[in-house]
Amino acid sequence: MKEYKVVTLKLGFTNRVQKLEDLLNQYAREGWALKEMPTNWNAIVLERDKNR
């Protein structure tokens, strides 16, 4: 079974890519994987196994 998390992004205007990378790495350490990211960069959907 999977569980999902929606994270609203508040990255600002400077260093957007680096902030996104740091955020994704932080969640990856917790077992989350990127499932979907809309083209307007306002939120991301993360997925992980519920029974891990």
From TrEMBL:
It comes from the Bacteria. InterPro entries: YjzH-like. This is DUF4177 domain-containing protein. It comes from Polaribacter aestuariivivens.
